[in-house]
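Lab notebook page, bench 4
Experiment: in silico fold of construct C2
Operator: M.H.
Input chain length: 240 residues
Purpose: comparison with the prior construct
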Amino acid sequence: MSKLLHQLELISIHIPKTAGTSFQQVLEAQYPDRALMRLDFEYVYDNPAEPVLRAKNKTDQGLLDSLVRAGEIPAHVKALHGHFTLPDVQRFLSASSTVRLVTWLRQPIERVISNYNYLNELLEAEIRDRPQAQRLVKRLKRTIFEFASLPVNADKYQIYLGGRQLDAFDFIGLTDHFDQELIQLAELMNWQLPQSVHVNKTPRKSFGFTPAEQAALELLYQEDIAIYTAAEERRKSRVQ
C-alpha cells in the first residue's frame, strides 16, 4: 500500500489516559468545519510482508478503507488526532516537512492507574443492574497491582513513540502541566486559546502499593519512566 498524501498541519498521537479527550476539545476549537479528523488505527503484522491496516475503537473500517482507495487524506482535513503509533503513522502517511507532530505524556504508573480506574468504571456501569455479573466480577477481577503488572501495560510509551524517538516530535506535553503546556503549544501553532480548558481527568484513588510492589512496578516500567524523564528534561529546556 502506498503512503497517503495529505495537507496536514498537525498530527496528534493520543496515548490512552494522557488528556487526549481534553486535547481533542482544544483541537476541535482550532480546526472547525471538518478540518479535524479523528482516526484510530493500527497495522497488524500476522504476515510481516503484508501488514493489515485495521480500524480501532469507534473508527469505521469503511472510512479507513475509503481513504486508502483514494490514496489521500481529504484536502479540507488539516489535523489528525487519534490512537495510533508513530511507526504506524509513518507507514500510513507520506512524509512532510511542514506537519507538526505532537503528543502528551503523564507519569507512567499514574497513567496505568488512571486506565485501571477508567476501565473499572466502564465495567461497573455495564453490570450495575446485573447482580450475578457483579458477583462474578468480584471473584475474577484483577487488583490494580495485578493489572499494572501486565507487561502489555508497561510499554505503552515505547510502542506509541516507536522507542525513544522523542526528537521526532515537535512538541511533547506533560499532563501535570496541561494549562502551561497548552500555552506553549499555542505559541508554536499560532492558536488563539479560550479563557479556560477543561481537563478530563479520571479521579485519582490511593491504592497504597507496598514498598515491594512499588519497587516491582518501577522496575517493570523503567523504560517508560526513562522516556517520561527525558520528556521532562525537554520541557525544562523549553520553559527556561
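Observations: DSSP finds ten helices and seven strands in the chain. The mean pLDDT is 89.
Next step: discuss at group meeting.
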